[in-house]
Description:
With 436 residues, the chain is α/β, with parallel strands linked by helices.
Amino acid sequence: MSNKTFFSLHGGVNVIGGTKLHLTSGTDELIFDFGATYEPGKGRFDQVLTVRPGRETEDSRAAGVIPNLSYLYSPTPSKHVAVFVSHFHLDHVGMLSYLDPSVPVYLSQPSFNLLRQLEVVGEGIGTHRDLRVFPYGEWIDFGRLKVLPLPVEHDIPGATGFYVKTPEGTLAYTGDFRGHGLHPEVTTAFFARLGELGTNILVSEGTRACEAPRPDAYSESEIGTVIESAVRPGKSAFFMIYNRNIDRIATFARAARSLGRELVLTPATHHLFRTLSPEEYRLARPAVFVTQEFRVKGLPPWIAGLDVPRLTVPDIAREPARFLTELPYANLNELVDLRPDGGSCFIHSDGPPLGEFDPAFRNLKQWLRDFDLALVFARSSGHASPEYLKECVNLANPDILYPVHTANMAAMPTPAHGILAVSQLYQKYYIPGRRG
Length: 436
Ligand SMILES: [Zn+2]
Ligand SMILES: [Zn+2]
């Protein structure tokens, strides 16, 4: 067996999300992220053609949905392999349930805390047992490889970037990151550290690499003001978020207080907010939205016993101006009974569907038109602006930059003293590459 160190990409090439970076050094193998690719209308499987019961893994391997590496899916002591997770967005962890339970999964403490609560609300990662929490800034020895996990700022708790020392050179993987969250200095420090340590290969996300400047590219700290100015006195106000963004829930809680309204959250969002942001939760005391589904079947046990206000659709419809109510896409049908006044607002704050690429987005807009709701965007991307991306690449100063998690590799910044590669699926890239 060759002792050379190389990496391959099993996803995340020419597409936003689904990154799976496979690093091999002798018999030591690491996989960074194990996400699902979300491309409506483009995947091998759809709502009609799906994986076969009992053959889910084989079908998914054959279709390239998960890496075609047999030892990941059955216990094989001959392989020294582990998965490192950058953060708990589905495009980075969505396929973890396929892994054999014997494959260790490394994750940050905030990611672990989030996962525990996601499990409560039924959004866990299956039966996986071997979870290993890493502290930031401490090296992890993995045979010939040494991994240094460092925090980055993204729109979810616990986002991590990785720096790896191999016998032949160094590689860094960014996960997802941005520079306009509540703590941009965290991301800047990550890239500065990569520069200090010396980085041969940088594998970086580039979601917004080709984005033109836009007036509604808000920073996270501006979102509260946008929410407050969207809500009209005396009218209903609804919003959608991605509830793994705990800071964003807190932003809505503060906006509700400042508007003199009560915050109303769906059961899952209520649970995540209560358990992961207890101080903000205590200040907000949000009500639980008992949607029609839960009126029929009862609230889930993890919320049924709580002493918290509960509101049904008739409660909210009776006093529309009293509330700021979470209304996810799946619950738009509640509008049939909510019957909001014309001119009420619906605030899109980064919940799915995210944009025109998703057919559900057109449907969302149609529902809002049907109920005369004004669509207001209060969005703050989880990804770096083109300018900040360039700043970060300059700080890391790699020999070779491999773009992932972007639909436009050519728009990525070229390293000042290195080259911009064109990443290809399954290609073996040897380390250190150019200077080797
Ligand atoms: Zn992502
Ligand atoms: Zn992400």
